[in-house]
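Researcher: I'm comparing several assemblies side by side, and this is the next one on my list. It has 288 residues spread over two chains. Same procedure as the others: predict the full complex and return the structure.
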Amino acid sequence: MAAHEHNEHCKEIFALLSEYLNLELPPEACRDIESHLAGCPPCVEFTESLRKTVDLCRAYRPSDLPTPLASQARAQLLAAYEKMRR
Amino acid sequence: MDRVEEIELARRLIAGDAGAFDNFVEHFRAKIFHYTWLMCGQREDAEEVAQDTLLRVFESFHQLREPERVRPWVFRIAKNECLMKRRKSMFAPSRELSLEELMPAATREDGNLKIEIADWSRLPDDQASLSEMKAVLERAISELPEAYRSVILLRDMEELSTEDTAQILDLRNDAVKTRLHRARLALRQRLDEHLRSATRGA
């Protein structure tokens, strides 16, 4: 477990981490975050925990599948498609 | 099925090739079912929304001008069907998540503010622990306020872009970014609590 002293810069970075991980920030803001991270191991650790959370979300596959499509429901959908195609 | 195959199925259906019908239905039915289940919380509602969405999709397939936009287009319809179903469903109460409540727990030590964080470098990788993490994640998603849940499902689970998600949910891009960040932080917080309690129990 790591202990970490908050400062205003940490808080500013905290607010931008998703955009940073999504590569949605302008280069200047990225450089600012990277230079902060280079000197702040607790922020690195926090960023990694957020990155892993995102990885878990992306890898998440629900355990349950819908029940198999009933033939009547399939027929209803196919009829709608056939009608649209005409 | 990847995005390329998905787009190819849409392209074939637009061109009138009914041979793509069953694969398209199977693929999107599961996707809509999962999204709606996590949004509505009811299995029966999710099955109904999946069927109603696909019906709208096939009725209006000729309106899909760009097959490469099939996923956001289908989810836009699913979101509307889901909203209609919502009137009959239980939803988490709407509330805002603040950045402050999502920052790691802080304590004072030697006059300094300290935060606590689990050791994420040693995420458990055995099957039992992974399925436990998945259950924690699933529960945490279902407990997110709806406005945040819909964003994280579309952005991180369905991997739609900020722009597509904004269009589907009638939001500005900035609102999508803000909500996504807070939703991720809330899930991170729940997983962190779980990891710390698992470490304490070990």
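Model: For your comparison table: Chain B touches chain A through 59 residues (CB under 8 Å).
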